Amino acid sequence: MRNMSFALTTDQILAGTKTVTRRLGWLHLQAGDYLRPVRKCMGLRPGERLSVLRDPICVVSVRREPLRMMLDDIEYGFAECEREGFGSHLDYRWPSAFVDFFCATHKGCTPDTVVTRIEFAYEA
Question: What CATH superfamily is the domain 2-122?
């Protein structure tokens, strides 16, 4: 089982409010795969251990789409902000703010970048 870092959205994973994530890459992922949500998995210092956030999550769907879809279809953008766990987070519940946040935290990313949209479910 692969680890997936949720360093930027740890609170949303812990609260179970996040059911979608966007990533650069992750092209190999398929519906039915399981992932272990962790705080951070790359750049661990010697002696530092993985911090597992919760039980494994199951991938429901995977598709590629331009990040700007959240801007071009504003209803879709608001719904996706909710799925990303930012529905009640005033700073990033707006699609434009979320896209700005995503681009600022992913080197070389622009609204035109095609990203991998991963929908997942928490196991009961």
Answer: Hypothetical protein. (2.30.130.30)
